[in-house]
Design a protein that fits this description.
The structure is a single chain. By secondary structure, this protein is mainly α. It has one domain. It contains nine helices and no strands. The longest helix is centred in the middle third of the chain and has 33 residues. The mean pLDDT is 87.
Amino acid sequence: MNAQAIRILFLKDLFLSRWPLFGYLVGGLASAAVACLPNEAAGFIGFIMMVTVTIAAGIHLIGVLLLAESADMTRTFVMSLPISLLDYSVAKIAVVLVTFLIPWAGMLASLMVMVFVIPEAKPGVLPFLVMVFLFMLAGFCLQLITAVITESVGWTIVVVVLGNVLLNVFLKELREQPSISSLIESETLRWPPLALQIISVEFAAICVALGVAVLFQLRRKDLA
């Protein structure tokens, strides 16, 4: 593995995506701020905005940094350079994941701070937020593996739509669980066993998806 080649490819893509990434980060932080306003309608709007930013960032970054290189033959040129398939695969998957994690982590971190700083906020909602954000990260990883395997914008969009539907189902199921729904208005931070189980499953799904994406890239004979 050529660390220098990976670093160059990674920084190149990070530089090219800097402005959209900045926009998603600002939009995400603004959405998180709106979600923490002491008004139920504003909180709901802020939550929807955060989900929208997350979905938009995911599909846009995958499309620009991964799928577009196949369509415009940029990848063919890159692979003609003295770099290995392993270097290319690690760099591409890493930069797509990192660029998504920047606004994702920014939103989650700001929410984690604000629930303890804003007087009207309920600290007990934190486990609920962690479960929702990990679900969205798992959905992004599923989009990533779909893009890696199929190299199809169409199939990736299908997975995005499916993820949106499953997110709504997931939220509905969470609110129907007494041990979870009680967290939303709780003044006390606690982690029910069910919440920890859900978080564990989400972490496992994320790791499996990323592992499969890397493994599939490495088993391919060429990326041209």
